[in-house]
Write a structure and sequence with these properties.
Elements lengths: L2 H7 L2 H18 L6 H18 L8 E3 L4 E3 L1 H27 L4 H19 L4 H19 L6 H32 L4 H10 L4 H19 L7 H8 L2 H8 L2 H16 L4 H24 L4 H21 L10 H29 L15 H4 L1 H15 L5 H15 L3 H27 L12 H19 L2 H16 L1
Antiparallel strand pairs: 1-2
């Protein structure tokens, strides 16, 4: 086996996804629609199997396509989490899409294409590959947001998403061009080496870094680049909202890590203050504005903004006065946080889809009133998810916040840790308000809650993970820390 073919073996999941998507599109065009859902799920299961079974050393990093693509423990972990999140999203969305006569073939093909784009982003070791994966993911999500062409609200949200997403992509692309002008290379590992040796034009590089951070903030949804999140979450159908709110956050973390931690750690003095401003603003705006929301999806949008603030806290606490000894632990804590948050988000929007039915969208807080009387099981799952988002022990959200706060304190920014804790108390209000509505208010809707067996299994596993990982977080946090250490060590 040649070295090139051996390297391509590590890209079999991407190759399988691409071939599978082409086959599914042709099948859908030929009218084989009934089997489409099962085939898509089987494709995702095969992708998971390939990611889990392909042999890979925990200490070495593989590259392909001339070093433009990198395969390491971090990429494997993020890809596994992304494909599981997308698979769970498709299962939860099945009945929702059927009730609204959403074209199942188009929906699932676009979801898989966005997943392929996320895979490319996660393994990118070159700025052009980052942009290629970003556009593949983004264009698929734009199309998903506009899939219900007969809905004016959905079309408006899709236009806002497209325009602001294109602006963010332009920021990133312009920043990459400035980085290339300052460093003379697009390879992320070479950028890191030239930063250490001082072979960069400092002013041009710093200007490019400003645009890079702004573009990343758009993709994360951090303040002040957050304006698209509430409108898109509220305006798009819940099935599409879940695909936008879930797995893409993992890909955004991946490119932030590849570019800032792996490629530009030597420029920490330039990007760390920017992340600090983004984190503080996101915590304040996200938590304060969420209190005033009566639309459930809009409230969860501002919740997302505040949660991203915590992720950024971990990212900015890795370098202290030029000492990057704590970078692996800090970025590892952020990785743990974003992974657990994505799975919590999948469950939360899954509950909203279960409560919705043909002709009715469960979108306001009043729709959750008395849920315990209508479906104690769904109410229990939602309670676990809200407790986790609020950071109440023993849910996994508490441990995720705890290790982020620990990283911030270790970096000597005790004031920032206290600030984050205080705003977490503010956040507890609007999360616990949902619990109060479910358990202590009379229901306004007497309709019975129907859900498929597969959706019940996904929600049960999701709730169990939120509770179980809070009690035993060791394996997952260990995997996150090891993956980040290997990536930074290579």
């Amino acid at each position: 086996m040649t070295e090139q073919s051996y390297n391509l073996m590590f890209l079999l999941p991407e190759i399988l996804l691409l071939i599978g998507i082409c086959v599914l599109l042709l099948s859908d065009a030929g009218g084989a629609r009934r089997r489409f859902g099962g085939t898509a799920r089987a494709l995702l299961v095969l992708t998971i199997a390939l990611l889990a079974l392909i042999p890979q050393s925990s200490t070495t990093t593989e590259t392909a396509f001339g070093g433009m693509v990198i395969v390491d423990s971090l990429s494997r972990l993020l890809k596994l989490c992304a494909v599981v999140a997308v698979a769970a999203s498709l299962v939860l969305a099945a009945r929702y899409c059927d009730d609204r006569e959403v074209a199942r073939g188009e929906f699932q093909s676009l979801a898989l294409l966005s997943l392929l784009g996320q895979f490319v982003m996660i393994s990118a070791n070159n700025l052009l590959v980052v942009y290629l994966g970003l556009e593949l993911m983004s264009l698929s999500l734009y199309a998903l947001a506009a899939l219900r062409r007969d809905s004016g609200i959905s079309s408006e949200a899709a236009i806002k998403y497209f325009v602001l997403g294109a602006l963010a992509s332009g920021f990133l692309l312009y920043g990459m061009s400035m980085i290339y002008g300052g460093a003379g290379t697009l390879a992320i590992d070479e950028i890191a080496g030239r930063l250490v040796s001082g072979e960069v034009d400092a002013w041009v590089f710093a200007l490019g870094l400003v645009f890079i951070v702004a573009g990343l903030a758009f993709k994360f949804g951090a303040v002040p680049f957050h304006m698209w999140i509430p409108d898109v979450y509220q305006g798009t159908p819940t099935a599409m909202t879940l695909l936008i709110a879930g797995a893409p956050k993992l890909a955004a973390f991946a490119i932030a890590f590849r570019m800032l931690a792996e490629g530009m750690l030597g420029a920490w003095a330039d990007w760390q203050p920017m992340l600090l401003i983004l984190a503080v603003a996101s915590l304040v705006v996200g938590n304060v504005v969420a209190i005033a929301q009566q639309n459930l999806k809009r409230m969860l949008a501002y919740s997302t903004i505040s949660q991203i603030g915590f992720v950024l806290l971990g990212m900015l606490s890795g370098v202290v006065d030029g000492d990057a000894a704590g970078a692996a632990d800090a970025w590892g804590s952020s990785l743990f946080y974003i992974v657990t948050y994505v799975f919590t988000t999948v469950g939360t929007f899954g509950v909203i889809m279960v409560l919705s039915r043909a002709g009715f969208e469960a979108e306001t807080l009043d729709d959750l009133r008395g849920l315990n009387q209508r479906s104690p099981w769904i109410a229990l799952v939602m309670l676990l998810l809200m407790f986790s988002l609020a950071g109440i022990p023993p849910m996994v959200g508490f441990y995720a916040k705890f290790i982020i706060i620990g990283s911030v304190v270790s970096a000597g920014m005790t004031w920032l840790a206290v600030f984050a804790v205080m705003l977490s108390l503010v956040a507890a209000f609007y999360y616990l308000r949902i619990v109060k509505l479910m358990y202590f208010d009379a229901p306004v809707d007497s309709e019975r809650v129907f859900y498929s067996r597969s959706a019940a299994v996904v929600l049960a596993v999701n709730g169990a993970l939120v509770f179980g990982l809070g009690l035993l977080p060791g394996p997952l946090i260990g995997a996150c820390l090891d993956a980040v250490r290997q990536a930074l060590g290579s």
